[in-house]
Amino acid sequence: MADDVLSQNEIDALLSALSTGEMDAEELKIEENKKRVKTYDFKRALRFSKDQIRSLTRLHENYARLLTTLFSAKLRTVVQLNVASVDQIPYEEFIRSVPKMTLLNVIEVPPLEGRVIMEVNPNVAYAMLDRLLGGKGEGINKIENLTEIETKLLQNIFYYTLESMQEAWSSLTQIDPILADFEVNTQFLQMIAPNETVVVISLNTQIGEATGMINICIPHVTLEPILPKLSVHYWMQSTKKAPNENEIKQLKKRIHVAEVPVIAELGTTNISIQDFLALDIGDVIRLDQEINEPLIVKVGELPKFLAQPGKSKKKLAVQILDEFKRGEQDDEW
């Protein structure tokens, strides 16, 4: 679609050609009416619809927010991630687009087939490593010279991203991500056929002063079982299900054994702080409740019944007289 949009320089050149007579407007109209032919590259087959791409974009916008929170906490510095683009391209084109020596996290996502690649730009990876080792977060590209300790530190921090991935995907399907492999050379990573379609989600990443990209590569074979869920209709429909008979019985059973506080309120009053601090044993507090008026019984802090005080087996008790009737004057309850 970008090929059909003219730049400002092209528009200016077109207007100039029309005004000088180098180009005839009538000829342009005739050519416009001719049948247009668009080239189609079968090596770059479009396997995903626009709706599905939009759904993947929404999903990974949420993932980017979760990663922002995670990396900010782990690295103790300002980290910002956001979705830059979502494209469907052949796998070989993705491999050619990333640096020869980079950070490649290979993630299995059972029960889905295939593997997901999280490619982290060396500038970003070393900024993370520098922060983990107490530095300012400077990005230096020395991925091919990673020591065993540095490799372990980076593996650990990307291990925590699996939980965020599981949470982000939970709105679509339940997955159990596993960090299956950790590579730095793309030549040793050949997961699928070179012409297989993949979706590449590019995340703009900023860690302190260092910037770079984190690319998430998802093969079509991985998303194929859940493609119907990526449609707009699926996202718009309600996923709420009515409880079945067994769930209703369990709910009633739990309600019946639930404990709630029951309070018989003798009355209330207002006194000053000075009088409250001066209270002593034997003092009498005058309440706003007449002795012949029924008491209000509260259940869970809400007035429910009217009762009269008394005794039962030599213990103080109340006898329920009536249900508490709520009126306009009781709206504050």
UniProtKB/TrEMBL annotation:
Q: Where in the cell is it found?
A: Bacterial flagellum basal body; Cell membrane
Q: Identify the InterPro entries for this entry.
A: CheC-like_sf (IPR028976), Flag_FliM (IPR001689), FliN-like_C (IPR001543), SpoA-like_sf (IPR036429)
The record's listing under Gene3D superfamilies reads: CheC-like (3.40.1550.10), SpoA-like (2.30.330.10)
Keywords on this record?
Bacterial flagellum, Cell membrane, Cell projection, Chemotaxis, Cilium, Flagellar rotation, Flagellum, Membrane
Protein origin, superkingdom: Bacteria
Transmembrane regions: none
Give the membrane topology: Peripheral membrane protein
Q: Taking the first listed entry, what is the main subcellular location of this protein, grouped into a coarse class?
A: other
Record keywords: Disulfide bond included? no
All copies of the Flagellar motor switch protein FliN-like C-terminal domain together span 254-322
What does the similarity note say?
Belongs to the FliM family.
Q: Which NCBIfam families match?
A: fliM_switch
**What protein name is recorded for this chain?**
Flagellar motor switch protein FliM
